[in-house]
C-alpha cells in the first residue's frame, strides 16, 4: 500500500462520500470524491486511479454501469462496490460483473479496510 | 216603461204649472221644469226676465234647442249623467232672445214617480256672466270643494245636528253634568238622537256604499237606517267629543247599508272651526271591511302559526328583538357601520347584544331540550346563558348576518341547557321581514348530540382505515426506508472508524477528529429525522387540520419517495406553482395520498415494463382552490377499471388490499376536495385532486 495511491470515491450521498475519503486519509491514502459516475468518467482521473470505490444506486449511471464501462474501456482498475440495497437481484447483478469487493451498508470498517488493502495489493 | 204610465206622469207634471206657477213667479231665481224629453213644462217670471222669452212662447218647446245651450261636454252626456245620478249642477252657455250669449249656472234635479221613473227635471238657473272676479273665485273654490267632496274615495255625509243640539241643551238645562254616565244609563237617548240626525248631503261614494245608487234615498232622511244598535256607543262618543269641543273624532265601528248589510267602517266626524253652534257636521266614512277581514285573516294565521309553533318537534324560541333594535340604532347613530370590526374591537358587545335579546315564547320541545320544568323558566330570559364562551364566534357570525339583514342563519354549535351543561345543536335563526316587523326573530334548536357522536365515530373509523393503509404503504416502502436509514448509519460507522484511527496515532490530529465528530452528529440527526418522518406516517394520531403550504407537503412526500424513485429509475419532475395560498389539512394524510399515488404509478410503470419511467408532479391554483396533478408515462388506466378505481377492495396488485385509492378519496372528500383519474392523450395516467384553499384568516378573536 503506497501513499502515492489515488483512490476515486463515487457516491451520490455527500456525507458517506466524505466519510469514506476521511477514512482513506486516516489510512494514509489519498481519496478523490465524485458525486456521480459520469462526473468521475469525465474527470480524466480514471488513468490515475489505483482503486475505484462506487455506490451501486445513483441517479443516472449506476455503479454496475460504471464497472461495465470500465471493463468496456479495457481498464483493469480494481472496483469496490457498496450498496444499501439488499435485494437478491441487485446483489446478483453486482456480483456478475466481478467487483473486487461487494459491501453492504452499513459495513464493518475493518472489512472495508481489508478490501481496500487487498485491492491495492493486486 | 209602459206608454200609458208615462203619459199619465207627464199629465201629472203638466198640471204642475197650475199649482206652482204663481208661487214660483215670486222667486227671484229662474225656475224651469222640463219633461224628461226636454220640453218645457214650467217657466217662471224670473226665467222670462233672464232669457227674454215669455212663458207662452216657451211652454212645450225644447229647452236646450230654444236657448242654444252649450257645454264643453255634450248635452246628451249631461242628460245621461242627470238620469243616472238624479242630480247635476254646472255652468252652461245659453243664447238670450236678444241674441246675446250668457253664462248660466244651473242646478238640475230629477223628480221621480212612484215607480222610480223620471217624471220631470227641475232647473234653478242664475246668470253668472256679470259676477265679479272675487265672487267667481269664491264660487270656484266652492266648486272645487264639491268636486273634492264628490271625488273622495271616502263616503262623506253632511249631517244636520241641530235637533240633537237642542236635546243636549235640554239635558244641560236639566242639570246633567256627567254626560258619559248619563248616556250609559240612558241608551234610548242616543237612539232618539240618531233618529233626529238628518242627512243634508252625501257624496257619490256614499250613494254607492250605503244606498242603492240613489242619492234621494239618503238625502233628507235621518241616519237611523245606517246606524245599527251595536254602534250606538260610537255615536255617544261623538256626542261627547262634540260637547268637549274636540275638533274631530275617529273610531272604527260598524255601519249598516240601506239593504241591511253591515260594513266595517272608519268613522270620522269633524266640526270644522266656526261650525260649532251651526248644527252641521261633516262625517267621513271609510269602508274598512277589507282591512278588517284581512286582520281577521292575520289573526287566524297567527293562531295557525301559534299552533304550529307549539306542535313543532324542533325546539322553537321566539326572541324579542325590540331592545336589540335600539342597540343597532344607537350603533348607527354613532356612525358604526362595520359591525364585524366593531365586535372585534369591543368583544364585550357580544354579551350586551345577547343580554338585549330575550326569550319571548317557547314551545314544548324547547322546554324539553333546555331541561326546563315549564315555559315560564325560559320566557323572559336573555339568551346569554344559553351560549358557552366557546360558541361566541357563532354568535358573532349571526350578529353580522343580522346586521346584513340576512333572513336566515344556520350553524352547528354548542349551546347550554338551563343547568349549564353543553350539548351539540343545529342553531337556525329566521328573521323574515314579517317577523322583523313584529320585533322578533325565530330561533330553532335541534339537538344533534347523537349525530355529532356518529360523525365522530365515522371520522374515527376513517382515520383508522387511513392509518391501516399508511402502515401497508410503509410496508411496501420497507426496502426504501432501510436504504435511506442505512446511508447516515454507514456514514457514521465510517466516520467512527476514521476517528478511531486518527486518535490512535502517536500524535492525534484533533482537528480532523473534531470535523469527523461534527459529521457524525449531523448524520445521526439525519437518521433521527428519517425515523421521525416514518413514525409520523406510522402513527395513529387523530386527524389534525393545520394551515399548510401545498408545495411543502408535496416536497416532504417526495423525500419519502426518493429511494423508491432511484430504485425504479424513475425520472421525477416537479412543477410547483409559486405563491400558492395555504390549505387547511392534515399533513400526514396528504403526504400519504401523494406517496400512495406515486407508488401506484411506479408499480404500474414497472409492471408494464415501461422503458423510461417518468413521473410529473405539479401544483397549481384553480377555481376550486389547489389542484394537484400527477402524471406518469405508464400504460394508462384500462377503461374497465376507471369506474371502480376508487372503490374499496379494488386492486390490480397480486398482494394488494385495494384500500389505497379508496382511502385517498375518503381523505380528500373529508377535506372538501375532489379526486379523480384520467388518461393522458399520449399514454400514461393522470391523477388529480383539488382542495379548497384555507379561508383568509379572520381578524383575531
How does this structure look, described?
- The complex is a heterodimer of chains A (122) and B (701).
- Chain A has 122 residues and is an alpha/beta fold.
- Chain A has a single domain, classed as Rossmann fold, CATH 3.40.50.
- Chain A has five helices and five strands.
- The termini of chain A are close together.
- Chain B has four domains: 128 residues, PAS domain (Beta-Lactamase), CATH 3.30.450; 133 residues, 2-Layer Sandwich (Beta-Lactamase); 135 residues, PAS domain (Beta-Lactamase, 2-Layer Sandwich), CATH 3.30.450; 232 residues, Histidine kinase-like ATPase, C-terminal domain (Heat Shock Protein 90, 2-Layer Sandwich).
- In chain B, a hairpin with a 5-residue loop joins strand 3 and strand 4.
- Classes of the chains: A alpha/beta (122), B alpha+beta (701).
- At the A-B interface, helix 1 and helix 5 of A face helix 20, helix 21 and helix 22 of B.
- Chain B: It comes from Pyxidicoccus fallax.
- Chain B: InterPro entries: HATPase_C_sf, HATPase_dom, His_kinase_dom, HisK_dim/P_dom, HisK_dim/P_sf, PAS, PAS-like_dom_sf, PAS_4.
- Chain B: It catalyses: ATP + protein L-histidine = ADP + protein N-phospho-L-histidine.
Strand content of chain A: 15-25%
Helix content of chain B: 40-55%
Cα distance spanning the termini of chain A: 10 Å
Helix content of chain A: 40-55%
3D shape of chain A: globular
**Main beta sheet of chain B:** 5 strands, antiparallel
List the helices and strands and how they pair.
The complex is a heterodimer of chains A (122) and B (701).
Chain A: E1 6-10, H1 14-26, E2 30-34, H2 37-43, E3 51-55, H3 63-72, E4 79-83, H4 88-96, E5 101-104, H5 109-121
Parallel strand pairs in A: 1-2, 1-3, 3-4, 4-5
Chain B: H1 3-25, E1 30-34, E2 40-43, H2 45-51, H3 55-58, H4 63-66, H5 75-85, E3 87-95, E4 101-112, E5 118-127, H6 133-151, E6 155-160, H7 162-173, H8 179-185, H9 187-195, E7 198-202, H10 204-210, H11 232-243, E8 248-256, E9 262-270, E10 280-287, H12 289-311, E11 315-320, H13 322-333, H14 339-345, H15 348-356, E12 358-362, H16 364-369, H17 392-403, E13 408-416, E14 422-430, H18 433-437, E15 440-447, H19 449-476, H20 478-503, H21 510-538, E16 546-548, H22 550-567, E17 571-576, E18 583-585, H23 587-607, E19 614-622, E20 625-632, H24 639-642, H25 660-670, E21 674-679, E22 685-691
Parallel strand pairs in B: 17-19
Antiparallel strand pairs in B: 1-2, 1-5, 3-4, 4-5, 6-7, 6-10, 8-9, 9-10, 11-12, 11-15, 13-14, 14-15, 16-18, 19-20, 20-22, 21-22
Helix pairs in contact in B: 8-11, 9-11, 19-25, 20-21, 20-22, 22-23, 23-25
